[in-house]
Amino acid sequence: MSWGIMRPALFPAFTYGDAPVNVYWEMTLACGLSCRHCRADAIPSRDPLELSTDEGKQLMRDIKEMGSHLILTGGDPLERADLWELIEYGRSIGLPIAITPAVTAKLTQEMMQRFKAVGVATVGMSLDGPNAELHDGFRQVPGTFDMSMRALGWAREAGMPVQINTTVTRETIRRVPEIFELLKTKASPPVRRWALFILIPVGRGLMLGSPSAQEIEDLFGWVYETAKQAPFHVSTVEAPQYRRFWLQKKLSEGTSLEEIERRGRMMGFGIRDGSGIVFVSHRGEVYPAGFLPHPLLGSIREKPLPEIYRTAPAAVKLRAMDELHGRCGECEYRWICGGSRARAYAATGDAMGSDPLCVYQPSP
Q1: Nearest of 257, 192, 248 to residue 6 by alpha carbon
Q2: Residue 215 to residue 266: CA distance in whole angstroms
Q3: What are the backbone angles phi and psi of residue 48, rounded to the nearest 5°?
Q4: In which domain, by residue range, is 82 found?
Q5: The domain spanning residue 93 has which CATH number?
Q6: d(Cα 275, Cα 319) in Å, to the nearest integer?
C-alpha cells in the first residue's frame, strides 16, 4: 500500500489555496543574453508596457499580505532603472526577496555587495556546463562562463547566498555530474542550493531536446545518492515526480511515516504550477507559472494578486488533483506530486493531462 493511499487526510496540508509559497515577477523582457532555453524569449530593449514602479510596489504589498516570497526575474532585472528603489521598498516592508540577474557586465562586485547589504535572501545564477565551451555555447555569449565564476567569487567575498540553476536537456543531462564536481570543488561556499530545471519546451526551449522519462528516472537516482554528500541542497524543478521517487526510496529503507510527513513540506509536497507557485508577467498578467503561460488567470492591473490566486476558476482547478487526466489522474501520488502541469500542457495542450517524463505506472 502506498503512502498516498495510507495518508489521505494529509492532502489538505499539501495544497496551497490561500497563498503561494513563491511569487515570480518577470520585471522585464530586456536581457543582454540570448540563451538557447529562454522561457521568456527575451529581447534587447524594455517593453514600454511593463509594470510601473508604483504598480510594482503595490504588487509587493500584496505579496507581503499573502506571506509569500518574491523572486525577481526576467529577462534581466538589472535592466530596470528602478530596481534598487523596488528592492529597498520591498525590504522596508519586510518582504523576503530573491533575484535572478543575468550574468552580464551589469552584474558587478559592487552590486553583489549591495544585494547582501539590503537583505536580498538569495542570488540565482545559471550554470549549464562544466566549462566555458559548453556553458557559453548554451548562453550564446562568449565569456559568460568566466563571468559566472567571477560572480561566484564576489558572492563568496560578500557572504551572499547563491542558488545555481542548471537546465537539464537531452544535451546537458550527461554533464550534470561534471557540473556537480565543479560546484563542489570551486563554488560550494556561496552556493546554498543547486536546482536542476528539467526542460519545459517553451520559448526558445522549443528548439532543444528533452531527456526521456527513463533518463529522468535515472537522474533521480543520481540526485538521491548525491544529495547525501553534497555541500549544498540539491533539488529538481518542474519534476515533482521526484517526490514520488524520494518517498518510495524512503519507504523501502524503512523510514517512518512520521518522518516522511515531517519532511513533506521541506520536499515541496503539493507544490507545482499554480499550487504554491504563481507568475506575474512584465505587463502584470498572472499565470500559474513562468513555464505555464496558460491559462491566463487575470491581471494585477484589474484585480489584486491575492484575489486572482485564490479565486480564479482556472487556478482553483489546477489545485484539484482529482481532476487530472490520464496516468497522472490515476496515480496514488497525485496529491504530493501531480506531475509538471507545464510539461503536460507543452506536450498535449492540456494543463490537466499527464506529464510524459514519468515512468511510474499507477496501481490498478
Answers
A1: 257
A2: 25
A3: -65, -10
A4: 22-239
A5: 3.20.20.70
A6: 6
